[in-house]
Amino acid sequence: MRTESSPDDLWWKTGVIYEIYLRSFADSNGDGVGDLEGVCQRLDYLTWLGVDAIWLAPFYPSPMADFGYDVADYCDVDRLFGSLSDFDRLVAEAHQRDLKVIIDWVPNHTSDQHPWFTESRSSRANPKRDWYHWRDGAPDRPPNNWIAAFTKEPAWTWDERTQAWYLHLFLPQQPDLNWTNPKVVDAMHGVLRFWLDQGVDGFRIDVVHAIGKDPALPDFPGDGMSHVMLNSDQGSQRLIRGFRALLDTYPGDRIMVGEVYILDTARVASYCASDQLHLAFNFPPIWTPWTADAWRHQLKATYREFSALDAWPTWVMSNHDHRRHRTRFGSEETARAAAVLLLTQRGTPFLYAGEELGLQDAIVPPDRVADPGGRDGCRAPIPWDATPTHGWPIEPWLPWPPEPERNNVATLQQNPMSILHLYRRLLKARRRSAALQRGEWKWLTSPEGTLAYVREADGDRRAVIINFTDETVSAPLEENWQVEVASNGVDEGKPFAGIVAPYIGLLLGGDSIGT
Ligand code: GLC
After folding, report:
1. pTM score over 0.90
2. What pLDDT score was predicted for residue 229?
């Protein structure tokens, strides 16, 4: 274990984590759905790219009502994705390459097919009855006004057999567990131990802020917003402290990154106290348009709230639940500048597989829509090469993202000016710079429509300037800098001339870079 004297050198602070949406990453067995062996076969690509860890979306046995976020067995692998021994091999192969492995853990709800729930719903007297939230009432009046995600219908389903309501913040097929029941806590601690014993380096914890609920389950003054975004109870933080205590009994730096889907950065940061989560996703930036003012605000808020609590931020532009930032921002050049912003922050960046290829969301025709939450577009499969099925044995489960014959790994690998090589250069630059990995972060004065900041650690310095406008700006900086990475790949290694072309992001270093 690392000592207290180097708290900022921990892998999960210095590293960059790469999200793999398993169904869409790489298919080894020709069923059109990605799998664990497929990931194994592509690990060398990830080390070539230069990421430090992978986060695997759920691979557990599941009826797939929410594509694996409805878990029917927490301690096994769905046949669609492989087997436990495939998983072991993946962890071993990843570790051999110095890649950490984080797995998704979904504690707020199970599948309605999980044996815990089938028992719970079988009778009012069943010993597992209280493992979920059951309420009496009239079949035409749900117990409170909470709204479920995706459907925007009541977060309650009436169960005919036992004449009672059960709670689900997501689909009816995803009943919420009752975490006030100590048996649920015990069973779930057992799940964490099972995977820690398999050697995982940590967990991405699905909607972790939602696990604790006000026991009275009161009505919520809301405007039809799904309740999961509103739920925040001390109970969640108490439970998280229990998970943390458990992880801390294991050797190595095992971590938890929580999905705290509350659009309030101060509250998100409060989940990252030293006895709670190591990291939490902070989603306001993912809802932020590509303008200098909007990003100035997000950067300020994040650094203010996280430093106030001595917590370490995370940075995410895209994931499997949101339109990709390439699509949101509307052009590859803005996506490139966004990569410079993302990979030069203080905090842990998360990449979403495919963003390094500049992938846009797929256009999904109505007859191919799969997800009840409308998120198929960002989950389109990764094109690996320019062949007709792009490195997949057969056509995958969702349509391709636009222009797969151009935006695929093999084609972009051959082009040093591609967005893929930009990501690789940024990752490399980050890896060799103490300033970028753990340095302080300070604003530099820069013209309207641009943002500039400097990072510094142990005498190592980097500066960044981003032009959000469609005009060339003159932005003389006080010191002499050299262009280390440019989002368009132009003039790297040359002195910075104080001019930034439209939509360009520049990472600047001192004279000593590259040595
Ligand atoms: C999280 C996941 C999302 C899933 C939901 C319910 O938000 O990221 O994909 O649908 O939780 O588990």
Report:
1. yes
2. 84
